[in-house]
Amino acid sequence: MTDNFTTLFNTYSWERTKQSIYEKTSQDVERALGNSKRTLEDFKALISPAAAPYLEQMAQLSRMATLKRFGKVMQLYVPLYLSNECNNICTYCGFSLDNKVRRKTLSPLEIMQEVAVLKEMGYDHVLLVTGEANHTVHTEYFKGILELLRPHFALISMEVQPLDTEDYEVLIPLGLNTVLVYQETYHREDYKKHHPKGKKSNFEYRLETPDRLGKAGVHKMGLGVLIGLEDWRTDSFFTALHLGYLEKKYWQTKYSLSFPRLRPFSGGLEPKVEMSDRELVQLICAYRLLNEEVELSISTRESVVFRDHVIGLGITSMSAGSKTNPGGYAVEPESLEQFEISDERTPGEIKDMLKEKGYETVWKDWDRLLQ
Amino acid sequence: MLTIADKVFNSRLFTGTGKFSSAEIMEQALLASGSELVTVALKRVDLKDQEDDILSRLNYPQFNLLPNTSGVRNAKEAVFAAQMAREALETNWIKLEIHPDPKYLMPDPIETLKATEELAKLGFIVLPYIHADPVLCKHLESAGTAAVMPLGSPIGSNKGLKTIDFLEIIISQSNVPVIVDAGIGAPSDAAKAMEIGADAVLVNTAIAVSRDPVKMAEAFKIAVTAGRMAFEAKLGSINSYAVSSSPLTSFLDD
């Protein structure tokens, strides 16, 4: 067994992988659709241009598989931005070091003001988000935050800078359940271009973060790429490869996937590659047809119309009422956001919409006493 | 009538509370099922909240609550969760679910046996979810289990009784009630489980995810009753050939 994903990853070439996806034919797609257990080669066919005419069929199969596994329910979660301090330069991010915004890290008192709003909305699951500022927002800081928040939430997730295994081992017993760490892109050279400065520019440290999380025994981890940086089909193949590797190796961990499309922020990057709504539906269905158990998550980056329609196609969790600036719920609602959100409906409105579509909103799917 | 520990059940259909499109539909479906034992995932309910969406819908005298430990990964976590559930829900019944594998939700036989031993000593009525493993069932009996709950096929798969050969062995040698749990996808699967002599079945996904959960719950109720009646009435044996002549032994009559 290889010690980490890099070893496996290095046996693949981006260009050859890309080419093999684009060479898939309608016969490959039909074979993939007919299989009951699907391989990574089937997945390539399902995300290839050749699968476009089969989208409705993919959607039907994806819907059935999702209903069977997850039922007529949708989990809701909400991000809580703790800090926008960041020492990284990332070309696509509003919190990038070279972006002239006022920096803020919430104090415990301010955090509790924000929490009061989230609890009022009905939330019991929270996703903590920060930039990467290792001198102020570090493991000791996170320990304090978990102790502060644990009594108030059934499930706590984090989307923060990658940490070492020992850090995760400290945080998990304090109530850290889920960690999201997106590779942004698996294209090694382009990754360097988009992350020219800061700790994040270390491609391999980021690539091996899920291994460190798995070794630390995290309950759930979320993977994904930022769609728009590179060819989304190739990046999604590597996401699926990563997922398959992790599932086999860290079999006690649950997995979720996200597929954020690059959104505008002030002075930000234009997507190199545009992904249409039709293509995003294709990707969602392809992920579901490859893996019936993985959670698929969609954020408020996406539009109202799009979110309302993809609910029944494979998505199992969504955010609602999100603010992407520290203090956005109560403390400083007008401060600069990390990215613009598109669906601005309240959690209550999302709950009503889900009910109308025959879905129960799940606010709580974990309990402190299980961890 | 089925007796498990100190309770007598008229219905042999046990039900789950997950995956329904609304709490109202869940309530109606469970009422239609005639079920008297209803499992509740601890992770889904707020034990401190009297108004909890799921718990408040189960407030009927016929529903006995069976909290389950879904989410725990080992015996230690399971025992802790069971104790919290006993305190909050005032029942010493526990459905022991230890599946450290969140993908296929396969029950861990080693940790389940450990936890059953410990919980039985602590006075719990333990109903463990397990593989259709006849030897494990005998170990669980010795550990003080109140029943065994072997799976028919992977949980939530609707694939039916893929483990039927092992279920038959378990049923034939069990001294505690056998409840077929997981994988029952259609009323015919439930009827089949009852025909081979299972004491009860537990159904969730097939009811919750159907187009009309209330009607499907009633269909399961009828199927379980029919299957049980067939078991009691004794089925005729199945022959794959006609038995009117005896070509091999008729010479004995000559």
Automatic annotation (TrEMBL), chain A:
This protein's record includes keyword Iron-sulfur: yes
NCBIfam families, alphabetized: thiH
Name this protein carries in UniProt: 2-iminoacetate synthase
Residue stretches making up the Radical SAM core domain: 72-301
InterPro entries in the cross-refs: Aldolase_TIM (IPR013785), BATS_dom (IPR010722), rSAM (IPR007197), rSAM_sf (IPR058240), ThiH (IPR012726), ThiH/NoCL/HydG-like (IPR034428)
Family matches, as PROSITE patterns: RADICAL_SAM
GO molecular function, one term: catalytic activity
Biological process according to GO: thiamine biosynthetic process
Organism: Pedobacter cryoconitis
TrEMBL record, chain B:
Any Pfam family matching the protein: ThiG
A cellular component annotation (GO) from this entry: cytoplasm
Cellular compartment(s): Cytoplasm
Thiazole synthase ThiG domain ranges (all copies): 3-247
Binding site for 1-deoxy-D-xylulose 5-phosphate: 156, 182-183, 204-205
Tree of life domain: Bacteria
GO BP annotations listed: thiamine diphosphate biosynthetic process
Single GO MF annotation: thiazole synthase activity
Protein role: Catalyzes the rearrangement of 1-deoxy-D-xylulose 5-phosphate (DXP) to produce the thiazole phosphate moiety of thiamine. Sulfur is provided by the thiocarboxylate moiety of the carrier protein ThiS. In vitro, sulfur can be provided by H(2)S.
UniProt xrefs under HAMAP family: ThiG
Name of the protein: Thiazole synthase
